[in-house]
Give the backbone structure.
Amino acid sequence: MSVHGTHCCKKHGCKYGDDDCSVYYGPEEGIVCESCDWEANDPEYQYSVKLEEENKAMRAALEWIAQVETTRQEYQATAKGVLHQFTLNALKKDHNHG
């Protein structure tokens, strides 16, 4: 195993900045790099990942709520327009028959 195989990974890239890293760009399988090891064992990092996942879920929920609200407002505007048109038509009929 090369020096890249003991320090680099597909997720975090080449630790040496090489454009021909045998792990990041090639077929060599590396072992767990220092960054992967730190992420797996640091409780603060794990907590931050969990918070980020929860934030993504909250953002998705809020975006959905905003879409529903926009759709509701569009339907309300359409319904008001239709009701207004029916009212105008009824007034025209009354005026023409009265």
Notes: The mean pLDDT is 85. The chain has three helices and no strands. The two ends are 97 Å apart (CA to CA).
